[in-house]
Design brief:
Pfam families: MazE_antitoxin. Keywords: DNA-binding. It comes from Mycoplana dimorpha. This protein has 95 residues and is α+β, with helices and mostly antiparallel strands. It has two domains: 46 residues, Pemi-like Protein 1, Chain: D, CATH 2.10.260; 48 residues, no CATH class. Helix content is 19%, strand content 15%. It contains two helices and two strands, in the order H-E-E-H. Strands 1-2 form a two-stranded antiparallel ribbon. The longest helix has 12 residues. The C terminus is likely disordered.
């Protein structure tokens, strides 16, 4: 896990370090989601384009991708820092 220290301005603003923006593939105009979980601030890029996911499931009942492949695609699109599945009992517990 990487971490950075930033300073909150008098207007409540922070500047994300360049290395962080590059690692998250953020561009000007991208949105971030701020969540508070157990007293910690979680910042997640909101750069999911659901059009990129269209057709992943294919036609029921057998789609063209496995649940693991769908989970991986969603994590890549949504930002892998948004979901930690390392302690989940089953690999398809992303919901």
């Amino acid at each position: 896990m990487k971490s950075w220290t930033v300073t909150v301005s008098s207007k409540g603003q922070v500047t994300m370090p360049k290395e962080m923006r590059e690692e998250l593939h953020l561009r000007p105009g991208d949105q971030l989601i701020y969540s508070i979980i157990d007293g910690q601030v979680i910042v997640t890029p909101k750069n999911v384009d659901f059009n990129d996911l269209a057709g992943l499931l294919g036609r029921p009942p057998n789609g063209s991708f496995t649940l693991e492949e769908i989970d991986e695609a969603v994590l890549r699109a949504a930002g892998s820092n948004a979901l930690d599945v390392s302690d989940d009992e089953s690999p398809d517990a992303a919901a």
